[in-house]
Write a structure and sequence with these properties.
Layout lengths: L8 H21 L7 H6 L6 H12 L2 H13 L6 H24 L4 H8 L2 H34 L5 H49 L3 H8 L17 H5 L1 H12 L1 H8 L4 H15 L2 H15 L9 H9 L4 H36 L5 H22 L9 H12 L1 H12 L5 H24 L7 H22 L5 H4 L6 H11 L8 H18 L2
Helix pairs in contact: 1-8, 1-16, 3-8, 3-12, 3-13, 3-16, 4-7, 4-14, 4-16, 5-11, 5-13, 5-24, 6-7, 7-8, 7-15, 7-16, 7-17, 7-18, 7-20, 8-14, 8-15, 8-16, 8-17, 9-14, 11-19, 11-21, 12-16, 13-24, 16-17, 18-20, 18-21, 19-20, 19-21, 20-21
Length: 529
C-alpha cells in the first residue's frame, strides 16, 4: 500500500468513534420502539420536516453516489449532475400531485397504494419487483461502493469481506430501532457527509493548476451539462425522456425513499421535507461531481474510475481529516443500506405476511420484519460483488433502472391522473413489460446484442407501457368510481389548496419554497449549460 493511502491511528480513531456514536445515538434518541407495525415501520407517522429532508437526502446520497458520481465526473464530465437537478423537478411534482394521495390513503407501502387504486394482483406484482430492485440494484450498489473504498485503503481485504462488514454495520440498529432510528441516523449522516465532501472539493480545487488548464486537459464538453444527442451516456433528448422517467420512479414510487414521507406528521411536513431535500441536493455538483471532473488533470488515465474519490481523499487530505472522510463514506453507505433494509422488511411484512395471514399480531409482524431485514441483507451481500462487471457504478444503477422502471411509472402516474385506467391494465402492464425490460437489459447492456442508449430505451419502454396500460383498460370495464375517485387528481384539489394557503405567511407557503427551489436549479443549469 502506498503512503498516499496510509491510514494512521488518528484516522482509525475518528472512524471508530463515529461508528460507535452513530450506532448508539439513534437508539438513545429513539429509546422505545413501538411493538406495533406503524411505530416500527413508519415511526408512528410523527416525523417532522427537517428529519424527513435529511433522511431523504442521506438515503439517496449513498456510498454509490460518492463513488459513482465522482467516477462519472472523471469519465464523462459534469453532465451526470443532470440526475441531481432533475430530482429537484421530480420532487416538486411529487409534493403537488402525488404525496397528498399517499398520505390520504394511509398506506404503509407503495404496493399497498396500488391495491387501493387497482387490485391485489398489482400490489403483489409491484411488491415482488420492489423487493428485487431493493436488493439487487439499490442495496447491492451501496455495499459495492463501500467495498471499493475499503479496497483502496486496505487492498488485502477481499471484496466480499468488506461487503459483509458494511451490511452488518448498517443492519444492527435497523433491526433494533426500526424507521425511527434510521431517520435519526440519517440526519447525523447528512452532516458528516457534507463535511467530508466539502473538504475533498476545496482541497481538490486548491491542487489543480488552474481552471483553464483543467478545461484544456478535459475538453469543453467535460464541463457542460447539456451533451449532444449522440452522446453515449447522457444525450440531451434523454433528459426529457428517460431521465424524467427514472427520476419519477426513484423519488415518487420507490419504497425505500418514499417511506420517509409516509411517516410525516402532516402533509405540510411531508412537503417541506421533500423541498428541504431538494435544496440539499443542489450543492452535490460541487461536493461529489466536480471533484471527479477536476481529478482528470491530477490523475490522467486512471484504469478504474470508481477509485477516483477515495484516491482524492487519501492523496489530498491531511492525517485526521482522512478519518472524517472515511466516516462520511461509511455514513453515506450505511444510510442507504439501513433505509433499504427497513423498506424490504416493510414490504415482506405488510404486503405478504399481513396480506395472507391477517390474524398475525402486531408484535409478531415486527419480529417477522426483523427476520426479513436479515434475509434481504444476505441476498445483497451475495450479489454485490457482481457489479464489478460494469465500467462505472453509476452506469450500472441508471442502466438497470432504465429498463425495468418505466411500467411502474406509467401505472402510478396515469393512475393518479386518470380515473379510466383500471386494474386489468395495471396488472398486465407490470406483469409483462417489467420482465421484457429485464430481458432487454441483459441483451443490451450485458451481452451487447443491441446498441440502444439506455435513456432512449427507457422512453421506448414507457411508450410500450402506456400502450398496454391504456389499451387493456379501454378494452375492459370501467373501474368503480367510488374506488378511484379519492385517489386521482382533480382541479378542485388545487383550488381547495389555494384557499387553505391564502393568508398564510410566505415562509409557511410550500408553493413559495417549491418555486424558489425550481428557480435555484434553473440558475445552476444555465450557469453550467
Amino acid at each position: 500500500m502506498s503512503d498516499r493511502f496510509e491510514v494512521t491511528g488518528l484516522d482509525i480513531g475518528i472512524l471508530v468513534v463515529y461508528l460507535i456514536l452513530s450506532r448508539i445515538i439513534p437508539l438513545i434518541l429513539n429509546p422505545k420502539v413501538s411493538d406495533d407495525s406503524e411505530g416500527y415501520f413508519l415511526g408512528s407517522r410523527n416525523f417532522i420536516w427537517p428529519l424527513i429532508g435529511f433522511s431523504l437526502f442521506a438515503s439517496n446520497m449513498s456510498g454509490s453516489h460518492f463513488v459513482g458520481l465522482a467516477a462519472a465526473g472523471y469519465n464523462q464530465g459534469i453532465a451526470v449532475f443532470n440526475y441531481e437537478w432533475m430530482a429537484v423537478v421530480i420532487l416538486v411534482i411529487f409534493i403537488f400531485f402525488v404525496l397528498p394521495f399517499y398520505l390520504r390513503s394511509r398506506v404503509f407501502t407503495m404496493p399497498e397504494f396500488l391495491e387501493k387504486r387497482y387490485d391485489v394482483r398489482s400490489r403483489m406484482a409491484f411488491s415482488g419487483f420492489t423487493l428485487f430492485a431493493n436488493m439487487f440494484i439499490d442495496m447491492a450498489a451501496a455495499l459495492f461502493a463501500g467495498a471499493v473504498v475499503i479496497r483502496v485503503v486496505f487492498p488485502a481485504i477481499p471484496l466480499w469481506v468488506s461487503v459483509l462488514a458494511l451490511a452488518l454495520l448498517a443492519g444492527v440498529y435497523t433491526v433494533i430501532g426500526g424507521l425511527g432510528a434510521v431517520v435519526i441516523s440519517d440526519s447525523i449522516q447528512t452532516v458528516v457527509l457534507y463535511i467530508g465532501g466539502a473538504a475533498v472539493f476545496f482541497l481538490t480545487l486548491a491542487q489543480i493548476p488552474s481552471w483553464e488548464a483543467v478545461r484544456e486537459e478535459a475538453g469543453p464538453d467535460h464541463f457542460s451539462l447539456i451533451q449532444p444527442a449522440g452522446d453515449s451516456e447522457l444525450p440531451w433528448p434523454g433528459l426529457l425522456t428517460g431521465l424524467v422517467i427514472i427520476g419519477f420512479y426513484y423519488w415518487a414510487t420507490n419504497q425505500f425513499i418514499v417511506q420517509r414521507t409516509l411517516g410525516a406528521r402532516t402533509l405540510d411536513h411531508g412537503r417541506w421535507g421533500a423541498i428541504f431535500c431538494g435544496f440539499l441536493k443542489l450543492p452535490i455538483l460541487f461536493i461529489m461531481v466536480l471533484p471527479g471532473a477536476l481529478a482528470l488533470s491530477l490523475y490522467p488515465g486512471m484504469d478504474d474510475p470508481n477509485q477516483v474519490f477515495p484516491t482524492l481523499a487519501f492523496d489530498l487530505l491531511p492525517i485526521g481529516v482522512r478519518g472524517i472522510v472515511l466516516a462520511a463514506l461509511v455514513a453515506a453507505i450505511t444510510s442507504t443500506v439501513d433505509s433499504i433494509l427497513n423498506s424490504a422488511s416493510t414490504l415482506v411484512t405488510m404486503d405478504f405476511v399481513q396480506r395472507f395471514r391477517p390474524q398475525t399480531s402486531q408484535a409478531t409482524l415486527v419480529q417477522i420484519g426483523r427476520v426479513a431485514t436479515v434475509g434481504a441483507m444476505l441476498v445483497a451481500i451475495i450479489w454485490a460483488p457482481q457489479i464489478a462487471r460494469f465500467e462505472t457504478l453509476f452506469g450500472y444503477l441508471q442502466s438497470a433502472y432504465s429498463y425495468v422502471t418505466p411500467p411502474v411509472v406509467a401505472v402510478f402516474l396515469i393512475g393518479i391522473l386518470w380515473t379510466r385506467v383500471n386494474r386489468h391494465g395495471a396488472f398486465w402492464t407490470l406483469a409483462t413489460v417489467i420482465p421484457i425490460g429485464a430481458v432487454f437489459f441483459v441483451l443490451n447492456e450485458i451481452l451487447g446484442v443491441f446498441a440502444i442508449q439506455f435513456l432512449y430505451a427507457a422512453a421506448i419502454s414507457f411508450v410500450i407501457s402506456l400502450v398496454v396500460l391504456i389499451g387493456v383498460s379501454l378494452m375492459t370495464g370501467v373501474p368503480d368510481r367510488s374506488q378511484v375517485e379519492d385517489l386521482t387528481w382533480r382541479p378542485e384539489y388545487w383550488r381547495r389548496d389555494t384557499e387553505e394557503l391564502r393568508g398564510k405567511p410566505l415562509y409557511l407557503n410550500y408553493r413559495f419554497w417549491a418555486v424558489t427551489l425550481l428557480i435555484s436549479a434553473f440558475v445552476m443549469v444555465v450557469i453550467f449549460w
